[in-house]
Amino acid sequence: MVWHACVGETEGTVVALGMFTTKIHTGMGEEVSVPNTVVFGQPIRNFSRLVQDGQFVLTTAITIGYATPWRQVHAMLMEAAQRTPGVAQEPAPYVVQTALSDFYVEYRLCAQSNKNAPRRRAEALNQLHANILDVFNENGVQIMSPHYMADPAEPQVVPPGDWSGAAGQP
Description:
Distance between the termini: 46 Å
Helix content: 10-25%
């Protein structure tokens, strides 16, 4: 059985449970040995326990200012999930508003992976995040936590003509 988990600040695939340590392969290509005294002393998030067939849960949060209608944010997040090959359509992804802060609303997209998802959760989240950025840019909605004095004159989004620029080029 494959476990995708988070112990403290270490997230990845649990590859060994030893008497003294738990070994985790991170999505960044690292192997981390976590002492079991640390494992026993804090909460563990298991991203694969409630999902079958070795798949895992995908969640991500964004914050958007109150000027953007919440229904539009939900629709854009669902569109990004639909575009991502590794996101299962059954059970259907969903969006919840997890905080109403002073300057923004926090939205959390919750989904499960499917057989097309990369083996590492970090890669699947990378694909999902790329699609979220594309969908929000296409709709002219800036993703930010607006702790500011005034709205910018122009939305802070990347126009379509600049999406495929080579690294280092303006």
